[in-house]
Amino acid sequence: MALRASTRPLLLQLLRGPGGLGRGLASEGTREPLPVIRVPQPLQLRRRAGARGRPATRGTGPQPTVPRPGPLLIAARRPEFSQPARLTLGRWECAPLASRGWKHRRSRGDHFSIERTHQGVPALPPEAEAGDRAEEAAEPEAGAGFAPLGLQPRMLEALRQAAPAVVRPTWVQLRAVPPLLRGRHLLCAAETGSGKTLSYLLPLLQRLLSRPRLAANCPAPRGLVLVPSRELAEQVRAVAGPLGQALELQVREIGGGRGMGSVRRQLSFQPPADVLVATPGALWKALKGRLVSLEQLCFLVLDEADTLLDESFLELVEYILGKSPIAEHLDELEDPFNPQAQLVLVGATFPEGVGELLSKVTDLGNLTTITSPRLHCVMPHVRQKFLRLKGSEKVTELIQVLKLRGEDNPGAVLVFCNSSSTVNWLGYILDDHKIQHLRLQGQMPATMRAGIFQSFQNGTRDVLLCTDIASRGLDSTRVELVINYDFPPTLQDYIHRAGRVGRVGSEALGSVISFVTHRWDVELVQKIELAARRRRSLPGIKTLVKEPLPPIELTS
Questions:
Q1: Which end of the chain is less packed: N or C, by CB atoms within 10 Å?
Q2: What pLDDT sits at residue 365?
Q3: Pair (527, 449) in one structural domain
Q4: Residues of the domain holding 289
């Protein structure tokens, strides 16, 4: 007969108690006493782990091990999460991320860094793969200078006068200059600081030398460079101006925020502009006011195309493209009676959906695409450190970094914030600590913004507080440290910010320090760390341009 459940504990007590039946049975060798579990197994594991001084795990999987001495790719505060430089994780291999637990508040104070694995700016092509060697053998060698690319002696002399330090073409210039000289439309996506500005200015200015200037009722530039910000417009003009002066070509610049009077005055200068560098808003106003005509364009450049083709600029850019005589076929570029314009798009991120947009204005069969092998990758020559902090700790950490930086290394520093209000508030704090700096943010009046970045480039101040307005295309060869006071909201923004250091022409390779505070920041940091461990491009980078918007009807 089966025993009831309520009688089982009493029976076990009788069997196991002193002098009970269990003792007699055991002594007779007929039955051993039943084991009693008095401490739960998870608690036993924690007690054993505490005695050994390491965390307990119930699984039998591999445990983190401290790497052997040698160069590191990932250097973590906890050595078991460091990764040697000789090791590369496979695409599907599980990685022990140092930032895996950073969403928990107890992780504050943790840090890791992506170490520098290259000791020079990788502007020239990496080791060619076996399938690419034949193609690279047919291309001009980088060490031979710019002459083999097809540039005329007059253009080479202008380059020598305007930029005597530039004697060797970069990877982008090697591949962009020849097709542009052949009259191809070009889409170039390459990492920041790789020399994209000269890659399109040199061949396009050379094309203007063979094109006569025609009479017009209003200013009609033969070249147009469209940029997303006034600061970038000033910088492109500063690069193109000396080249144009050596070639007897006039370069003008117009930017938004200064009113129509300023735009009219810039366009009325004599002799008229051969090359116009403009922002979309200022050019749109000039076209609407019939202050400028695009009928004589020989080339149109969209610099920082990923930003210009974003939703904030897309309508204006479509209107400008509609007013531009862009060639649909190669024969139209050489038509002496009705020459058409050559189209060039450059950027540090590749804009998806751009083909559908360009198909409205030109034949995509004439579009040459150049993509850098390091596009969207973590830069191997820049050290990047990530600090997990509380929001209230960021100011103290920033001040400490800036003061120590000023004592040990007087190099220039860029401090990025996500909003204009944070730039202003942080500026007041730095004033209280006697740290000299400049501020640059989009809500400043145009008269106040004018020349701020040039003053920073000239060395007036070594610290610049700024928003992402300073992360797109601006030349920052003086910058040796980038501090992300606010972690960027997207991976594209991180690429552009980190690209302010380690540029072609920089004296120092530089480094990046990022403060990580929010849970959504941690998600981006984990993607960056995983891409670095696998030496692959950052995942999911795309723009908002999926399909072109319907044509916009704007009255003249």
A1: N
A2: 73
A3: yes
A4: 135-371
